[in-house]
Amino acid sequence: MKKYLISFLTLVLPFITFAQETQETGIDQQIDKAFKPFSDFFSDKIFFLVWKDPDIPFVLVLLV
After folding, report:
1. Is the pLDDT of residue 41 over 90?
2. What percent of the chain is helix, strand and coil (3-state, nearest 5)?
3. What is the pTM of this model?
4. Where are the domains of the chain?
């Protein structure tokens, strides 16, 4: 019986010692996750390339 107990503990003990708690996402990460689709949409619309060769985005032409 002692042999089985020692075998069981040698198999289970590493799983117990290396178990980690899951980290909760912070409020900043939740906000980033919520606004990412909106910010990606607007950045795609504002920073699209007007000329491909020198890679000039629309916002640069608009500001100049």
Report:
1. yes
2. 65, 10, 25
3. 0.47
4. 28-64
